[in-house]
Amino acid sequence: MQHLPPQAYTMNLKAQGRLFSGVAWAVLLALPLLPHLSTEVQLLLLSPIILLFGVPHGALDIVFARQFLGLRSIANWTFFALAYVACTALVVGLWWISPGFFLAAFLLISIFHFSGDPEGDTPALFRMLYGGSVILCPLLLHQAQVFEVFTFLSGAANAQMVVALLQWAAWPWLVAMVAVAIYGAKQEPMRSVELLSVAALLTLAPPLWGFTLFFCAMHSARHVLRTRDYAYAGTLRTLLGVASLPMAITVAGVSVAWWLSDGIPLDMRLAQLLFVGLAALTVPHMILVEQVRWSGWMAGRKVAP
Fold first, then answer.
1. pTM across the whole model
2. Is 289 exposed, middle or buried (0-12, 13-18, 19+ CB in 10 A)?
3. Which of 117, 146, 199, 288 sits a CA distance of 20 to 30 A from 214?
4. Would 301 be classed as within a structural domain?
5. Residue 288's domain spans which residues?
6. Residue 32 maps to a domain
7. How far apart are CA 86 and CA 54, in angstroms?
8. CA distances from 44 to 47, 49, 54, 273 (A)
9. What distances in angstroms separate CA 20 from CA 107, 158, 216, 227, 239, one per listed residue?
10. Phi/psi zone of residue 263: left (φ > 0), alpha (ψ -120 to 50 degrees), beta?
């Protein structure tokens, strides 16, 4: 297989950012035409989309494990797989034992992890505001819907406390995002457009719809493109082949979890399966990927998958 330099690919991060921003604003313009759907119906519609188009970016962790950690032997791969599974199990166990602490920790690590989306030498303040927008912007106009989902995850008392703590920061956070976007527009206009698009989408769209579009079309898509460039994979089809086995295992795990959660109300069951599952997969994914990000995304790129 011929390995091409990242600039030779047809889709780069800037093009992906423009595409996401265009889709986000198109969705916002179409919002008045969308029917009002219950949380249960939204979860039924959106959970499979997140599973099929959002989760697979985490299945590409084996690319980084091979090239950044240098895993080669069966023993090393076995240890990596066991450590990965153990980490996910610990997250689920934390949710089971202390759902309130789980929710707070999940939101904090999400802010940190999503802050890695912007390109290049993005200032830390910009990254923090970007990452926090995913959590805080939905609270501006959709507090009741966010509270409902948080209640499914941690109970009403914990959800109320978390929402109350976050809500006071939501409007100042939005003002700070707009100010930073305007200030940075001259140096990096596309980066500012992305920030404003994410903020507008997550503020105006229903929370589950906004999160799904952000997670799949921005966060996951950007990670896939970075993985392709990191691995000199050539085509996205190559990465699809790499992700197929981890995704099959993930789908099997989801099926088992669905079976074990029988008897729980459907909306609560879907929310717990979706967000507890995302948290469980995010922690080991973040432990690995953040090392690559801090090294500049290119360090450790030695062989194609």
1. 0.89
2. buried
3. 288
4. no
5. 39-294
6. no
7. 22
8. 6, 9, 15, 12
9. 23, 34, 10, 18, 21
10. left
The CA distances from residue 252 to 235, 255, 257, 258, 279, in Å, are 27, 5, 9, 10, 17
Q: Please give the Cα distance from 218 to 211 (Å, whole number).
A: 10
Residue 24 lies in a domain: no
pLDDT tens digits in sequence order for the chain, 305 residues long = 344 444 444 568 899 999 999 999 999 999 999 888 999 999 999 999 999 898 888 888 888 888 888 888 999 999 999 999 999 999 999 999 999 999 999 999 999 999 999 987 889 999 999 999 999 999 999 999 999 999 999 999 999 999 999 999 999 999 999 999 999 998 899 999 999 999 999 999 999 999 999 999 999 999 988 888 877 655 667 777 777 778 888 888 888 888 878 778 988 999 999 999 999 999 999 988 888 877 765 544 444 43
In a domain, 16, yes or no: no
Q: Which amino acid is at 105?
A: A
Residue 254's identity, in one-letter code, is V
